[in-house]
Write a structure and sequence with these properties.
Layout: E1 29-30, E2 43-46, E3 52-56, E4 59-61, E5 64-66, E6 69-73, E7 79-84, E8 100-107, E9 110-117, E10 128-135, E11 143-144, E12 150-152, E13 161-164, E14 171-175, E15 182-186, E16 201-204, E17 218-225, E18 228-235, E19 246-252, E20 260-261, H1 262-266, E21 272-274, E22 280-290, E23 296-304, E24 320-326, E25 328-330, E26 333-335, E27 344-345
Antiparallel strand pairs: 1-27, 2-3, 3-6, 4-5, 6-7, 8-9, 9-10, 10-11, 10-12, 13-14, 14-15, 15-16, 17-18, 18-19, 19-20, 19-21, 22-23, 23-24, 25-26
């Protein structure tokens, strides 16, 4: 079943038909949001079929849970919601409903999804795990490999992101939150376990001052540009009554660090390169994609202050919708500022 990109259950405008949008069709401009529906923690992938696929945290839609959301676009602007990329829960997580922050890569002829979940064994605790599922198609269905990759206390093991180092060919997995540092560890050749003899490396820490921003860091995303590695990460609260998210950045000559933060390099407060404005609250949990012109685009979620929840009974600031913005490079550092609100030149896709 396919779903509209609009929140029909909340009484929004009629759905727009994007099914005829094919790769090669070019837009001149776009306006945020590009998907006006709850779509938290987006990760974007340019698949072998020429479409962009975006994956997101679970949501409640049309009276049921979608475990892992997936949407498709030819141009990063017009999105078609395809439904559930993980329609069948893993056997170890049938009774719980915390399916968060997926990331998908294409490797060895298949699509591999890394995601966060709460195992049934941890149903009465806050403990989460990192898990892996595979599929033949970018839209899924993805099937879990049978056991979690890592299980830890609290929500430390969330927000996975896979990265292949173009310089060495090594494969890495980044993760982290739970008031702990962002970490990275090398993956094995098949990407379904960690490389033997390796250990996690700590990269970025929360603010050590009690109560100071950011109290937690999470949602890491790494890119390689002009010989440098840029680590994007988010903090503090993603949502809820105290939502205070923003995107920060650090830079290194190695995918395993050490990383210099934007604050250390240029004195930018808290290393923020994307932060809230009057319209968009708590922008963050980004992914990055380059268009055909070589420009980098950030794909992320934010809260529309004019519509902060899908249903009246939902928690305030729980409706996180999909935005994109072009990244500008200033003296070797990526910058956006605040989310755009109005027509902007569209990606060259």
């Amino acid at each position: 079943m396919r779903y509209s990109i609009d929140d029909r259950e909340a009484g929004s405008a009629p759905a727009r038909d994007h099914s005829a949008i094919m790769p090669g069709t070019t837009l001149e401009t776009y306006c945020n949001p590009v998907l006006d529906a709850d779509f938290p923690d987006p990760a974007v992938l340019l698949a072998e079929d020429g479409f962009y696929y975006a994956y997101a945290t679970q949501t409640w839609r049309d009276g049921r849970w979608i475990n892992i959301q997936v949407a498709r676009s030819a141009d990063l602007v017009r999105w078609e919601h395809l439904g559930d990329a993980l329609p069948d829960k893993p056997a170890w997580g049938l009774a719980t409903q915390d399916y968060w922050a997926p990331d998908v890569i294409f490797a060895d002829g298949r699509y591999i999804m890394y995601y966060s979940a709460k195992p049934d064994a941890c149903a009465e605790t806050k403990d989460h795990c990192l898990a892996i599922a595979v599929a033949d198609s970018p839209a899924g269905p993805f099937v879990d490999i049978g056991a979690p990759l890592l299980v830890g206390q609290g929500f430390e093991y969330i927000d996975p992101m896979a990265f292949d180092d173009p310089a060495t060919g090594k494969k890495y997995l980044y993760w982290g939150s739970g008031f702990q540092p962002i970490k990275v560890q090398e993956l094995s050749a098949d990407r379904l376990s960690f490389a033997p003899g390796t250990r996690p490396v700590e990269l970025i820490w929360p603010n050590p001052v009690k109560g100071a921003f950011p109290r937690l860091v999470e949602a890491s995303w790494l890119i390689h540009r002009d010989g440098a590695y840029y680590l994007f990460y988010s903090g503090d609260n993603c949502c809820g009554p105290h939502a205070e998210y923003g995107v920060m950045v650090a830079r290194s000559s190695s995918p395993t660090g050490p990383f210099e933060t934007l604050e250390e390099a240029r004195g930018v407060p808290y290393s923020l390169m994307l932060h809230k404005n009057d319209r968009w609250l708590a922008p963050g949990h980004n992914s990055m994609i380059a268009d055909k012109a070589g420009d980098w685009w950030m794909v992320y979620h934010a809260i529309d202050v004019n519509r902060p929840r899908t249903r009246q009974e939902d928690e305030i600031n729980s409706r996180r919708i999909l935005l994109i913005d072009k990244v500008e490079w200033v003296e070797g550092w990526p910058m956006i500022g605040t989310p755009s609100d109005g027509p902007k030149p569209a990606p060259r896709t």
